[in-house]
Amino acid sequence: xxxxxxxxxxxxxxxxxxxxxxxPAPKTTPNTFLEILQQIWWRLDIALDNEMIYWSAMLxxxxxxxxxxxxxxxxxxxxxxxxxxxxxxxxACSDVGVRVNACYGVTDRWDNSGNLHSKVSPLSxxxxxxxxxxxxxxxxLRQGGRGMVGVHAAFxxxxxxxxxxxxxxxxxxxxxxxxxxxxxxDEHAGxxxxxxxxxxxxxxxxxxxxxxxPGYIVHNPRSNMNNSVGYARPSELKNKVLLGTDxxxxxxxxxxxxxxxxxxxxxVTQSPVTVWSWLENSYEIFPEARHDKVTYNxxxxxxxxxxxxxxxxxxxxxEVDGEKIVVNGSPTRVDIYEIRAKAAEQTKRLHExxxxx
Length: 357
Known about the structure:
By secondary structure, this protein is of the alpha/beta class. It has one domain (4-354): Metal-dependent hydrolases (TIM Barrel), CATH 3.20.20.140. It has helices at 33-47, 50-65, 85-96, 128-142, 159-172, 189-193, 221-227, 252-266, 272-281, 304-307, 336-354; strands at residues 4-5, 8-13, 69-76, 99-106, 149-153, 176-180, 202-205, 216-219, 241-243, 293-296, 315-320, 323-327, 330-331. The strands form two sheets. The protein has an eight-stranded parallel β-sheet. The chain has a five-stranded antiparallel β-sheet with strand order 1-10-11-12-13, with no helix packed on it. It is globular and about 55 Å long.
């Protein structure tokens, strides 16, 4: 028996993190969210080069497809490989057959001398690194790429950078995609973004957001639990809520099951229907995904109450724009074994580089 749904959408991903699995542990154990960023993720992104970015995106997109996810909204950062990085990600996803909405997450945490600052003064001037990131978003969008303007997080950006990012988004009639109040280090994000945010912005996490901002809020329960930043209480928000993974794969049925368990822990009166509405909301970003066809190895995936309690649901066949790009559990456009082998080569390079940082 099997059942069918439309294509699923990951509303916030970091495809560059696919190769991070098994990365060398930091020299000391991080005790705070800021230390996790400094010792793990900010070390990872400075180590990336174009080959790593491509094969990380290839593997991440293929794994997404094999879980029934046909669209990814990606947020990218690679301070030492900015120019052309969004086109590299878009090509990888296109090669696999996955649609992508991409952006580069600009930040002022690297000053013009190459020094890292964990927190940036709002009164600082925009750095050359942030300008390069904005130029990459502008280039990608001007050349017809599907995407947004990315910002890492307000606490790593000056007010100048936030305003220029907002203006660039308006120029291209797109939203800004950024992390908002994920941890307490960014608790003032609401005040700094209040005059800038619009309804087409993607506000990711919003765990410690202290006021209403217009835009979609993207909930990432697994990541929030993993980083111990708290619970965003998405069911209480006025905003439309979408569901993302923050780079921990793109199996949206699995993320929805976890989101439901976390929601029930907070409010026992809630049902799986609430969480499945968060998946549905993402079709406002990728409406064509509604016409994708995903057939699963389980006969009740179209029932929220079944899917919420059934592990190991896998996609058997996936059809995108009339093309069968997964048949009998295998991708048709690419060789999954070659992708894994190439990704393993880049993983080895990446991990060797990380060991020296």
